[in-house]
Amino acid sequence: MLDRNTEPLGAPTVLICEDEAIIALDLKYQVEDMGYRVIGPVATVAAGLEALKGECPDAAILDVRLREGDVIPLAEELEAMGVGLMFQSGHAIHEEVLDRFPQAQFCNKPLPTGEIDRSLKVILKPSMSNAA
Asked: What is the pTM of this model?
């Protein structure tokens, strides 16, 4: 387990957008324990867009349905920046999301750690090979 008080140097960054506080915190800790650096979690599209002003993440884990509406505007901005996308939802039909974002990964809630790790490796693989 990583020390959460120190960020891994050179680790890929993952933006988390999740509006349920307990799920967001749990997801943050899981992703950090996998060796990634986390931006957020943020709970709204506006907060996610604001976070992008400071840093471009390598990947993003996005809850499809937020209290304020869907996460699509943030996903579109991230996609335009070349960020790998992983959607999660307990409600959305994954075909709808993957039709719009065919390069993305989709996971149903609750997210098992192994599924998060596998999905992040899939969406990070293209950017990691470009960096090599």
From this structure: 0.86
- The torsion of the CA quartet 112, 116, 90, 85, rounded to 10 degrees, works out to 180
Residues pairing with 86 in the sheet: 61, 105
CA atoms within 13 A on the CB side of 131: 9
Containing structural domain, residue 64: 13-131
Which amino acid is present at 17? C
DSSP state letters, 19-47: SSHHHHHHHHHHHHHTT-EEEEEE-SHHH
The CATH number for 26's domain is 3.40.50.2300
pLDDT, tens digit (0-9, with 9 covering 90-100), for 68-93: 899 999 999 999 999 999 999 877 67
Rounded-to-integer distance, Cα 69 and Cα 110, Å: 20
* Dihedral over Cα of 8, 9, 14, 16: its sign: positive
